[in-house]
Amino acid sequence: MAGWFRRLLHKPKPSSVESLKSSHSASSSPSSSSSSAKSSSSSSMSLATSSISLSPVSALDISASDSPRWDKTYDVCICHSEGDVELVEELVSYLEGQPESFRCFLQLRDAVAGSAMVTELCDAVQNSHCWVMLITPGFLQDPWCRYQMHQALAEAPMANGRTIPVLKDVDRKDYPRELWNIYYIYMALKEKTFRQIRDTVMRYLQDLCRSSTKRME
Question: Are the C-beta atoms of 107 and 4 separated by less than 8 Å?
């Protein structure tokens, strides 16, 4: 675990909520709308692939000043092993570079120096809408990764689109039993997988905004 503190990334932390709100307000127009996309995920039980189209909610909607998106500090918390840092950095760069400017928590970059690892992780899990778990051989062998997974599951036992398992170089039979009730994404092509993760996070935020709107009506 000491390895988590030996590396410091130079990339700045995600923009604050207020700056993101203002940037979206300035760059988005009422006539803009997000293009529909499809997300495919494999089931550990049936190994079937399902495609779900994104609902026609624009990026402006999830980034509005009164959006429930801003109730949490991060849109995505990335759980991964130390050996997968480079791949995770690419994923974070992709998500943060999207028009929606997804706010990602990356422990090596965003944890406060001198703070307890467990405290930082629990805070990140509680203050994130979604959790991406990059399940690799290193993840399965690392007790710390298992701990991260259990923290996320404790926060949202029924998943509801918040937990996003991603399998890479792992046989389906080794898919963690704790996640058997959750569909996963199997990483074959990196670019396609990144899009699937983006679409899944986007869909959850859309549903969150839609539910909030219904409660207000």
Answer: yes
List the strands of the sheet with 163-167, edge to edge: 104-105, 74-79, 128-135, 163-167, 185-186
Nearest to 182 by CA among 142, 149, 143, 147: 149
Residues 13, 15, 18, 21, CA torsion sign:
negative
**Residue 112 · residue 146 · CB < 8 Å:** no
pLDDT tens digits for 72-84? 999 999 999 999 9
Q: Can you state the percent helix, strand and coil of the chain, rounding each to 5?
A: 45, 15, 35
What is the C-alpha end-to-end distance of the chain, expressed in Å?
Answer: 48
What pTM was computed for the model? 0.73
Do the beta carbons of residue 106 and residue 135 sit within 8 Å? no
Two structure tokens written together for 200? 């899944």
- Region of 43 please: left (phi>0), alpha (psi -120 to 50) or beta: beta
